[in-house]
Amino acid sequence: MHRAHGRRTPDRIRAMPLTNPWLSGAAPTRLLPRADLEERILNLLSSQNMAVIATTNRDGSPAATPVRYFSLGFEIFYTSWNDSAKSRNLRRDPRVSAGIFAPLAGQASSRGAQLFGTARTICQGPAELDHWRS
């Protein structure tokens, strides 16, 4: 919490009511081993089906779009119309970020991951399209 002029007021922070009691636990004190972290990310990717894809508009501003996805390992796939804003943005600049998260359930903490990479268009023929539509 900050005052209007920007100085911290620690005494006021302690006096504020805790609206999310499950967030009051101890913060992690060590990094997860890479294998454990990757396993958690893969579990998250395979248990969700919605992501927010972030691309860059022509003027440099961000564009974030919710999409339904499926994953194979650390790669995510989604469909998009060729003339959609996100498709046009990715043709011009293929850098992309995807945010995937599992919403809060009761008093459990939320889980999420942000993936960064380069997007590419996969053009499918009729046989592949029929497979994915079924």
TrEMBL record:
One of its GO terms (molecular function) is oxidoreductase activity, acting on the CH-CH group of donors. It comes from the Bacteria. Coiled coil: none annotated. Transmembrane segments: none annotated. InterPro entries: F420H2_bilvrd_red/Heme_oxyg, Pyridox_Oxase_N, Split_barrel_FMN-bd. The lineage of its organism: Bacteria, Bacillati, Actinomycetota, Actinomycetes, Propionibacteriales. Keywords: Oxidoreductase. GO terms for cellular component: cytosol. Gene3D superfamilies: Electron Transport, Fmn-binding Protein, Chain A. Residues 37-131 form the Pyridoxamine 5'-phosphate oxidase N-terminal domain. This is Pyridoxamine 5'-phosphate oxidase N-terminal domain-containing protein.
